[in-house]
Amino acid sequence: MVKASQALREVLETYEISQNKLAVVMGISRANVGRWFHGLDPSAENIAEITKALKQINPEAAKEFVHRYLGELLEDGKQEEG
């Protein structure tokens, strides 16, 4: 599991989604997205809003964000068996 800010940065870069595009879809300032992009972790509420916005922009990017952030928790106990 990585920090939410790291997961967000990786997904935006991989899917070529600009910080501005995410901010516009979320209805917030680009400066907020910039803070997350540069390492400030978003709140749990903002993580949900980021996921919703990414889903509108690119559903695969939203899935990737959730997987990168919560990956180990989504593995259905595979980590616990080892």
Explain this structure.
The model has no long low-confidence stretch (mean pLDDT 91). The longest helix is centred in the middle third of the chain and has 14 residues, at 44-57. The protein is globular and about 35 Å long. It has helices spanning 4-14, 19-26, 30-37, 44-57, 59-70, 78-81. Helix 2 (19-26) packs across helix 3 (30-37) and helix 4 runs antiparallel to helix 5 (59-70). With 82 residues, the protein is mostly helical. The protein has one domain (4-81): 434 Repressor (Amino-terminal Domain) (Orthogonal Bundle), CATH 1.10.260.
Characteristic key phrases:
6 helices, 82 residues, globular, 434 Repressor (Amino-terminal Domain), mainly alpha
Summarize the structure.
This protein has 82 residues and is mainly α. Helices cover 70% and strands 0% of the residues. It has helices at 4-14, 19-26, 30-37, 44-57, 59-70, 78-81.
Topology summary:
Blueprint (H helix, E strand, L loop, with lengths): L3 H11 L4 H8 L3 H8 L6 H14 L1 H12 L7 H4 L1
Helix pairs in contact: 1-5, 2-3, 2-4, 4-5
Number of domains: 1
Q: How would you describe the shape?
A: globular
Distance from N terminus to C terminus (CA atoms, Å) equals 17 Å
Strand content: under 5%
Helix and strand content put the structural class at mainly alpha
The main pleated sheet reads as: none
Question: Roughly what is the average pLDDT, rounded to an integer?
Answer: 91
**Count of runs of 4 or more consecutive helical residues:** 6
Give me the CATH architecture, please.
Orthogonal Bundle
Q: Please estimate the helix content.
A: 55-70%
Strands, count: 0
